[in-house]
Amino acid sequence: QVQLVESGGGLVQAGGSLRLSCAARGRTFSRYAMGWSGQAPGKEREFVAAISRSGVSTDYAEFVKGRFTISRDNAKNTVSLQMNSLKPEDTAVYYCAAVDLPWDPNRVRTKEREYDYWGQGTQVTVSS
User: Fold this and answer.
1) What is the pLDDT of residues 62-121, one digit of tens each?
2) Which residues contact 58 (CB under 8 A, 6 or more apart)?
């Protein structure tokens, strides 16, 4: 098992930036493909970004492409989401997620149901 703890959320003006971090504890972090999802008020949680075990492969939801960047540091057991050019519609609780993929270091997962472990979430609020 792996435990995930997000941090870095907060209140920011439109056009601003935030960097979310997720610290993983438990089994070997490099076994896991990682992702971020967001849940806006009154909406279902949806995929935002994903990164493979190796960090070589990434994928993004269309509405964040060119603005958000996912990265990981396997030595520090962390995954991050750099959020630039934030918009009010980015307001959401952002969750870090992990899935154990020991056989494929370069695969990403882009569907909610594919992830096994979730953090508690961190609130991001973007004011207009």
Assistant:
1) 999 999 999 999 999 999 999 999 999 999 999 999 999 888 899 999 998 999 999 999
2) 49, 50, 51, 52, 70, 108
Per-residue pLDDT of 33-57, as tens digits, reads 999 999 999 999 999 999 999 999 9
User: How far is 39 from 43, CA to CA, in rounded Å?
Assistant: 6
- Give residues with Cβ within 8 angstroms of 13, minimum separation 6: 126, 127
Closest by Cα among 118, 121, 122 to 3: 118
